[in-house]
Structures are given as structure tokens and as C-alpha cells.
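#struct-pred
JK: can someone run the complex with NAP? inputs below
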Amino acid sequence: MAEIAVVTGSTRGIGYETALALGLSGYTVVVTGRSEEAAAVAAKQLGERGVDAHGHGLDVTSFASVQRLADTLAHGYGQLNVLVNNAGIAAEWAAPESVEYAHPESVRQTFETNVLGVFHTVEALLPLLRRSTPARIVNVSSFVGSLTLQSQADPSDMTVPAYQASKAALNSLTITLSKALANTDIKVFSVDPGFVQTDFSPINRTHAPLTAAQGAEPIVAAAMLKTDAPSGSFIGRDGAVPW
Ligand SMILES: NC(=O)c1ccc[n+]([C@@H]2O[C@H](COP(=O)([O-])OP(=O)(O)OC[C@H]3O[C@@H](n4cnc5c(N)ncnc54)[C@H](OP(=O)(O)O)[C@@H]3O)[C@@H](O)[C@H]2O)c1
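RT: done, C-alpha cells with the ligand placed:
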């Protein structure tokens, strides 16, 4: 039986390319997004490119939704080898109002998806990952979440504080989860894909240097353990990223 990989938020962008690369490497890939239809379309497209892909609706902000995915996986496969926590938003880009610092609703939405969503997904899928060791959990983080780089950056670069705080919190999750799983064969990584041409923000398509396929590369490398970094590391295209 092929190894099973779940990629959250894989209807487009970095998640889609991660699913494609894992699928072409022989994984059975579960493709997810909030819309069941969009997930099915993405899975069909991947299937036409030779990937064993299966679409599943998933909203990571809902624990019930993640639990439904866990039940489907348990009945369909009984195992899970790779979990890529890729679903993410930066709600500040969509907030129209001018704010002093951070719009409360943007902060809530960003943390619900980028932080609570990963806690939900890990909690629901960990029993399946434990059955499939060696297993891998890859949290798609960002260099803008690095506290080291934030403290060194020019003030004008600090434009999305809720998003940056959410990725710093996600990095903390990576550390604490890797320690909680230290006596298991499950490895946990935070991965920075770099600045990537996706629909993530109004500037990504025009300003980012990397294609979505390139952004997926370090995520796929971590998922396939093609890295020397120990569990609990923060890594990117060029190796270690400072916390
Ligand atoms: N692009 C960059 O330069 C960059 C840099 C560093 C880190 N990242 C991180 O990389 C990840 C992917 O970003 P991207 O650029 O590929 O963005 P994207 O093109 O906007 O894709 C985001 C994906 O997340 C899904 N999603 C959003 N909210 C969700 C929810 N509540 N539940 C489940 N899925 C949800 C979307 O699917 P549906 O809309 O179909 O639900 C979509 O598939 C994010 O975590 C982002 O923070 C991106």
C-alpha cells in the first residue's frame, strides 16, 4: 500500500504543488479545501497528471470538519504517513478599514486558521499518524514569523502583525509538538516556502520571485525526510531559518 499524505489547503497555490510533487513521488494524496467541489476539481486535475489523488472538503477552523476527515481516513486507509499543515490566510490583506495596528476581526480569522486550525488537525489526525511511523508533520510557516528576523527588520516591513504573530505561534507549536512526540517515530518541522507567486495576497503574483512549485520544494523535502534537520527544526530552501 502506498504511503498516505494529507495536504490541508491544496486546492491551489503551494498546497496544490505539494500534493502534485508528493503524488508524483508515489504517495496517495488527500487533497483538501473548504469547498468539497474545489477539492474534487483539484483531485481530478492531479489525477489527470498521474497522481492517486482524492478530494475531501475540510475547514481547519472547525474541529468537527477535521474529525470527519479523520473518520474518512480511518475507514479508507487506517493510516496516515504525512500531514502537511499548509492551509493559511493573511486576513489583514482583505481588511478594508484603516486600523491603528491590527483589526480584531482579521486577527481572529488569521489565528483561527493558521494556529487553531493546526491544533485541531494535529489533535484529530495524530492517532492515525501514530499507526504509521515513521510519520511526518510539516507545518507551513513563514520567514516573516521568525522572531529573530522580525526584531531585525525595518519598521516598514511590519505590515501584517497578526499574520506574523500567527506564524510565530505556529513555530512554537512545532517545538512543543516535537518535544511531546520525542519518544515516537513522528518528526515535526516548520518549513518556510519563501516568497511565492500565489493568490495569497495582492502582491504575491507581482512581487514574489518563486513559483508555487519552487515554494513546495522544501515542504516536500521535509515530508520525505530529505533533510538532515532534526525533528523540531525550522527550515527553508537554504537550510535552517532562525526562530
Ligand atoms: N505565498 C507565499 O509567499 C507564502 C510565504 C510563506 C508562507 N506561506 C504559507 O503557505 C501556505 C499556503 O499559501 P499559498 O500562498 O499557497 O496561499 P493560497 O494560494 O491562498 O492557498 C491557500 C490554501 O488554503 C486553503 N484554506 C484557506 N483557509 C482554509 C481553511 N479554513 N480550511 C482549509 N483550507 C483553507 C485554501 O483553500 P480553499 O479556499 O479552497 O478553502 C487554499 O487551498 C499558507 O500557510 C501561507 O501562510 C505562503
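RT: quick notes.
The chain is about 45% helix and 15% strand.
The chain has a mean pLDDT of 95.
JK: thanks, will look after standup
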